[in-house]
Amino acid sequence: MLEELKKTVYEANMRLKNEGLVVLTWGNASAFDAESGLVVIKPSGVDYATLSPGDMVVVDLEGNVVEGRYRPSSDTPTHVAVYRAFKGVGGVVHTHSPEATAWAQACREIPCYGTTHADCFHGAVPLARFLTEEEIAADYEGNTGKAIVERFAGFDPLERPGVLVSGHGPFTWGKTAMKAVDNAVSLEEIAKMARLTEELRAHVPGREVPAYVSEKHFLRKHGPGAYYGQA
Fold it and tell me: Which DSSP string do the residues of 3-36 spell out, in sequence order?
C-alpha cells in the first residue's frame, strides 16, 4: 500500500539525518496522500541506520494504523492535526535542530531580519503557546497540533510553512514531504542568522528588514507573478 509514498517518506527522513537536522531518533517526516486520505510516517524510535522504506507506517487522519509492523511516530497526532487543518499541505517534518529549537526554548518568534528569511517565510516565524497541564495529560501530541492550528488563525500556512512550539521545537510543512524538509533546512539557517544578527546588535536596537523589501522577496518566489527560478 502506497509503496511509492513510503519510499518518498523514507528518503525525506534520511535527508533530515544527512542534513544534520536530527541526531539519534529525534525527528520524523510524513506525507499525506490526498486520494486515499492516508498518511505515511516514520516509525517511532527506529534507528535511522536500520530504517528502510518498508518500515514506514500508514495511518488514517485520526492516527489509526492502517498498515505497518511498527508503531508510528509518537508525533503522529500532531502531524495528522496539521493535515486535517491546513489545506494543500502534503508533507510535515518535526526536528529538534539546535538553532530553531533554541528559539522555541527561549519562547521567541524569529523576526524577519533580512531577505533570506523573507524568501522563505512571509513574516516572522510564529510561536505556538505552551500547553496546559490538562492538555498534556489528556492528549499531549494531539493538543500540540491543536495549539499549532490555533496559532495560525488568520495566516496562510503555505506562506509561513513552519512554527516553533514553545519549549519544544520546530515543525515545518509543505506541499510535499521533500518541500517540508526544504523548509526545515531553511528554518534552521534562518534561526542561526537571526541569532547571529542579534549578537552583532547586542547594544543596538533591533530592526527588522523594511516591509517592502521582505514583501518583494517573498512574492518574487511565491507570489502570482513569481519569477525566481525556472518556469
Answer: HHHHHHHHHHHHHHHHTT---TT-EEEEEEETTT
